[in-house]
Amino acid sequence: MILQGNIKISGRTYKKGDSVSWLSIYPFFLLHMAMFGGSGFALAYFSDDTPVLFLYAHGGIAVAAYLIFYKTIFGFDEVKWMLINSLLGLYGIYVDIDNILSQFGRTADDYPIYIHVIPFLYYILYTFLIRQALLDLTNSRENKERKKIVEYSYIAISVLIYTYIYLT
Does 134 fall in a domain? Predict the structure, then answer.
């Protein structure tokens, strides 16, 4: 992957245009986001006394940092794909969160919209990272034809999975 900005990874400074192995990026961010996203999810849905301001600060600072890293690593054009993930995500996030909460006897409708903001933002960032990983794992980033196939497959499979979960 070719960096779109300067960044320091594992003690080494990379400059815009440098090539970085996906192994330097995805494992760290997937694990890091799973931990912060998981804690944000727990704060939003399983702690009745979490102040909303704390929920927003806890998640908002991390989300802002991730956005800076994403722009630096992937570039602005790729980050705008998050808008597409967001549209898919609004449908998928609601279905997934409702499905997860149903395992605990709750539904997404049990919470006001403002409680969903941080978990939804994490979901959007996570699905963005999954798309980036798929592009790199399939060597599609620089192959326009293959990239288009991977992207449309990603959309179709996402919609099928979300619809299946929703219907079951």
Answer: yes
